[in-house]
Amino acid sequence: MAVRIDPELLAEARRIQVRADRMVTDVMAGGYSSVFRGSGIEFDEVREFAEGDELRSVDWNVTARVGRPFVKKFVEERELTVLFLLDVSASMAFGTRPPLRERRSVALTAALFVGCVAFAAARNNDKAGLITFGDRIERYVPAKKGRNHVLRLIREACEPPRPGTRSDLKAALDYAGRVQRRRAIVFVVSDFLGADPGAKLRLLAQRHDVIAVRVRDPFAGGAGDAGVAVELPDAGLLHLADPETGRTVLVDTASRRVRTELQRRWQAERDRFADVCRRAKVDLLDVPTSGSVADPLVRFFRMRERRGSKR
After folding, report:
1. 274 lies in a domain?
2. Per-residue model confidence as pLDDT tens digits over 46-69
């Protein structure tokens, strides 16, 4: 039976596709192919020992089994696998729209980021895959090559967050480690609100090159132009609701003290998660919900080039 695709979802996916495709030139020029390289060499086969072979390449197990010397043959591994671990919990639906400047929801910004990097991977002949998660694993799309596969990833990434769902980041990291056996570049894309992945993040980073991509609206504890959380405007009494738990609270934004305290808490939470990433040896990339997602990507690639790509 044919699966019916929501026309609005399909239209949004097409808009993301067009915008992401336009950004890829900047991303490639910014250093994708130079920052992310193959993992070196991988085992290919064994063959009989020949004059000139080094003794350290001898496969002693095979040699002992067949009674004559064999050596291991390796080939250079250039192909990369990019895996997106995408949060689709309820908090990702947040988004504000100031009258003078376009701002996307967190979820659509995350989908645009996935599309941009996936297209860059396709141009570099790399594979890309996707895992979406909320309070459970929603979808796993194994890594493949090609533009048609990228379009599928974009459609999956554009699925709207499920209302009332929490984010189980630890379970998602654990699942990614189990399904992705070979070394990969893993982009964990989330708002990371209240996240404390701890040992799971460190464990995944021991086997893969993990990048935490923090996508937030500035009015939900995201980064403003100065790199700190934006202060709430004076809007009087506001009922604020947690989209994942449904809990509501009344906040007096007319109070300067209240606004200052909220900004302090947001900044402390941001700093805490940045420290979690440092201890796990994971790079943290902040992507805003306004402007081009390619700009922070290009800055990130240049930073990695200066520092030297993690192996």
Report:
1. yes
2. 788 787 777 777 888 888 888 888
